[in-house]
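dumping this here so i dont lose it
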């Protein structure tokens, strides 16, 4: 672990929790001040995994899609809200259940909730998101770390991002079982 701490201090890397235990539950190692555009458009992006031989082998064998899913997982939970907001722009293009759930989780983040809500609308994922939020409110199903109060606030954020779509939104609320 001393090697990792030395690496963090000298390279500008920081630890970000693997909130959903995508890899092995150990923190990701990501750049403190990343160029998100370069990371998500590169054909060979840097791995957010601990730099072990095994992790380097796993990373080199992954598809670019899987690498971007893992990068989104790491950078959507970066401590800097500007990084999270920039990552949302790229994450919304990734078609993966985990990324969809992370965007829902970010509706509870006061710094990027509007960007997350817009990304959900852009993805046409409002009904999915409302079903997730229903589960958060009821504390059933596959829930994250969101409180029921945060879930209600997230619903209001989704509602206000597209004020011209209130009819659709009301229909989706009913479909999701939210009254």
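and the seq i came up w/
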């Amino acid at each position: 672990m001393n090697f990792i701490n030395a690496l963090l201090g000298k390279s500008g890397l920081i630890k970000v929790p693997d909130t959903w235990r995508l890899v092995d539950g150990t923190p990701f190692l990501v750049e403190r001040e990343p160029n998100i555009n370069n990371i998500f458009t590169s054909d060979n992006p840097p791995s957010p995994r601990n730099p072990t031989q095994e992790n380097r082998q796993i990373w080199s064998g992954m598809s670019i899609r899987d690498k971007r899913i893992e990068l989104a997982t790491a950078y959507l939970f970066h401590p800097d809200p500007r990084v999270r907001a920039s990552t949302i722009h790229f994450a919304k293009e990734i078609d993966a259940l985990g990324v969809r759930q992370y965007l829902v989780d970010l509706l509870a983040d006061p710094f990027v909730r509007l960007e997350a809500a817009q990304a959900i609308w852009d993805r046409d994922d409002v009904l999915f998101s409302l079903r997730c939020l229903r589960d958060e409110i009821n504390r059933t199903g596959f829930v994250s770390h969101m409180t029921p109060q945060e879930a209600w606030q997230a619903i209001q954020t989704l509602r206000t991002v597209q004020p011209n779509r209130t009819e659709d939104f009301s229909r989706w609320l009913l479909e999701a079982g939210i009254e």
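Residues 120-179 form one domain.
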